[in-house]
Amino acid sequence: MASADMKTPSILLLESLVLIPTLRLSPDDAYLSYHDIRLMKEDIDTLKNDWLTDNSIAFWEEYLEREYLSQYKNAHIVLLRPSMSFMLMQTPDPLTLKDALPDFTKTTHIFLPINDCRNVELAEGGSHWSLLLVSVVDGVAFHYDSLHSSNRTDAQLAAQKISQLLGRPLNFIDLEDSPQQENSSDCGVFVCVQMKHLLLKRLLKAGSQEKISMSMGGRSIDASGGRKEMLKIIESFRKEGERRRS
Predict the structure, then answer these.
(1) In the Cβ-directed half-sphere of 162, how many Cα atoms lie within 13 Å?
(2) Is 116 in the active site?
(3) Tens of pLDDT, residues 7-25
(4) Is 204 exposed, middle or buried, given 0-12, 13-18 or 19+ CB atoms closer than 10 A?
(5) Catalytic site residue 145?
(6) Nearest to 35 by CA among 220, 202, 237, 172
(7) Angle between helix 54-67 and helix 82-90 axes, rounded to 10 deg
(8) Are strands 37-40 and 30-34 parallel, antiparallel or unpaired?
(9) What is the pLDDT of residues 49-101, one digit of tens each?
């Protein structure tokens, strides 16, 4: 995604932590705390050129909520974290999760990162990310998969669980014209870039009665640029934290 879309962060909530010089950090060391998300050095390392962790995607969702979505007071859009999406998919009766999930009563759209991991005992498991966007108002679940519908079954399961929670049927649409990745590690970046575009350029720009296309067909995803943008944002928060402590 073009860096022109990026803006200066507005509201920061950095927990009190010691920012150790980067070269001395081990993978399990804290790198940055941002609101409810604590990024570790391992998250940053994989963000540079590897498979994105749950934590990195959760940070991106937190960032989009705090820096953009919060400015639209009348928007009722939920960005479900990877951990909650996974829990939802693995729970036989999703209604038992109602107290742990956001209140969907007024929700119009729900973004869910989809992971193909099915082992509940394996942290950071799975081998592929895709994106599910549920339009509650239209009764449709759109699936964006950058690897030839590899996660179709998992996304259908997530849509089924959300349907049970909402108490209404959902029409599942696997968007076969979704942009495709060129390697085995960019799937998470595709999820983040597409999530930002769909949120900012489609949903938040449309009028309440306006019909918009949810297809990403014909769009090119700059995965390398997406990684650089995310890293630049993280570094800006980190430097701001260092400046406040100096």
Answers:
(1) 33
(2) no
(3) 434 434 444 344 445 557 8
(4) middle
(5) yes
(6) 237
(7) 120
(8) antiparallel
(9) 999 999 999 999 999 999 999 999 999 999 999 999 999 999 999 999 999 99
Is 197 considered catalytic here?
A: no
Q: Find where tokens 């430097």 sit.
A: 239
Residue 19's nearest CA partner among 235, 238, 232 is 238
Which of 43, 116, 145, 186 is the catalytic position? 145
* pLDDT for the residue 15: 43
The catalytic residue among 43, 54, 116, 128 is 128
Contact by Cβ (8 Å): 238, 39? no
Kindly state the tokens that stand for 192.
């983040």
Instruction: Locate 130 and state its tokens.
Output: 């895709």
Q: Which of 109, 117, 143, 187 is catalytic?
A: 187
Mean pLDDT for the stretch of residues 106-110 = 96
CA angle 7, 12, 13 (to 5 degrees): 155
- Answer yes or no: are the C-beta atoms of 200 and 13 closer than 8 Å: no
Helix (H, G, I), strand (E, B) or coil at 115: strand
